Amino acid sequence: MIKFENVGLRYGLGPEVLSDLTFQIKPNSMQFLTGPSGAGKTSLLRLMLMSLRPTRGLVTVFGKDAASITPEQLPAIRRKIGVVFQDFRLLDHLTTYENVALPLRVRGSSESSYRSDVTDLLGWVGLGERMHVLPPVLSGGEKQRVAIARALIDQPDILLADEPTGNVDPPLARRLMRLFLELHRSGTAVILATHDLGLMDQFNARRLVLNQGRLQIYD
Residue 86, SS3? Predict the structure, then answer.
């Protein structure tokens, strides 16, 4: 689904922040992306999302060279990718329910076709009683869960999640991990960036470890 071949990335004239990355993300796979702060995890996720282009090497997404994908083609491809950003990127004028339903509305689905799915998912992430609240009055942990629900609602082919359990307590983190596992078992390729070694140790998943811009893989 995603393939990197000898990929390097630098910002401006600075040194490479990612160097010689070669790996694949296969369908229906699950992996943790980890490494110290500043190792390049967010940059790597942005390359997968095609919001960054590599300085060198080849990134292939769904069989297409990312460098050759036109701006007109990009939205359709990105609809196959669910993303949980560290800064949440919620729309403050939309309720919790409306934020989660937004990908389906943009696709043109009728509310009657997704209302129960959105309501059930919000209940699962513990926001059933907060679905009509606007983001400015939500806590950081609640915003995190809204962002996760929005990324999952359309059952994407790939999920990219940047520290998805970073603002929740350990019991809720485990519950969210069960949700990611269910998504993986249903056929989604899941890439979770995290610093939480204890959380990773609870699950048998491949690890992509970044250190000083270079990648080691532990299957």
Answer: coil
Q: What is the pLDDT of residues 38-74, one digit of tens each?
A: 889 999 999 999 999 999 999 999 999 999 999 999 9
How far is residue 146's CA from residue 134's CA, in Å, rounded to a whole number?
A: 11
Q: Is residue 146 part of a domain?
A: yes
Domain of residue 128, residue span: 95-153
How many domains are there within the chain?
1
Q: Is residue 124 part of a domain?
A: yes
Beta bridge partners of 192: 32, 161
pTM (predicted TM-score): 0.88
How far is residue 158 from each of residues 45, 153, 180, measured CA to CA in Å?
12, 12, 11
- pLDDT, one tens digit per residue, over 74-98 is 988 988 999 988 888 999 999 999 9
132 three-class SS = coil
C-alpha to C-alpha distance for 99 and 103, rounded to whole angstroms: 8
Task: State the DSSP code for 129.
Answer: G
* Contact between 197 and 32 (Cβ < 8 Å): no
